[in-house]
Amino acid sequence: MSKILVNEIGHTGDTTAMTIDSGGRILTPARPSWRLGLSGNQSITTNAVNTVNFTDSTGTLKHIDGGCTLSGGKITVPVAGVYHASATLLMDSLTASDYAEMHIRHETTGGTITEIGYVISGTPSTTYENATASVTVKMAANEKLFVATYTADNSWTISSLSSFSGFLVG
User: Fold this and answer.
1) 57-111 pLDDT, tens per residue?
2) Closest to 167 in 3D by CA, of 25, 65, 89, 16
């Protein structure tokens, strides 16, 4: 019987690729992941498709790790792979009685945008309509995920309690 004893496996660029803790658990410090929120309520003043401007604001459990970057509410992933993402939006002060939508969107490096997660409420509540969606998607390096919303209203709010999160599955 053979046994290899190591505490750390490194990359040729002298970065840590993986460590093994004293309990034998494998830790991968560069695993891409994020959990974003809003630093305050986001006011929407147009009845067009709007990108939710999630930020990496400080607060409970909010983070951007493993090489992910954020710009204009869009997360760019650093490596190719299968990603799981989820979003929860709390929409308030809706007055139009027809519908409210939330989309999780995938944007390729060429700029093509695809709806990959979609929720619609046919008769939204005027106080705190809740929309939740989750997706699993295969992505190339430097592609983006983001959340967008639409309603016929031209004056409503996305609550600061909303969130957008995701991680590399493999």
Assistant:
1) 666 678 999 999 999 999 999 999 999 999 999 988 888 767 889 999 999 999 9
2) 65
Count of H helices and E strands in the chain?
0, 16
| Residue 153 token pair | 């209203």
Rounded to an integer, what is the distance from CA 26 to the centroid of its chain? 25
Residue 139 has pLDDT above 90, yes or no: yes
Q: In CATH, what class is 31-168? A: mainly beta
Per-residue pLDDT reduced to its tens digit, 109-118: 999 999 998 8
Cα angle, residue 147 at apex, residues 142 and 151 outer, rounded to 5°? 150
CATH 2.60.120.40 residue ranges for the chain? 31-168
Contact 50, 56 (CB under 8 A): no
CA 32 – CA 24 distance, rounded (Å): 22
To which residue do tokens 């929407």 refer? 44
How far apart, in whole angstroms, are the C-alpha atoms of residue 155 and residue 138? 35
For 119-164, give the DSSP string. Answer: EEESS--SS-EEEEEEEEEEE-TT-EEEEEEEES-SSEEE-TT-EE
The rounded distance, in Å, linking the Cα atoms of 32 and 21 is 20
Cα torsion at 121, 122, 123, 127 (round to 10°)?
20
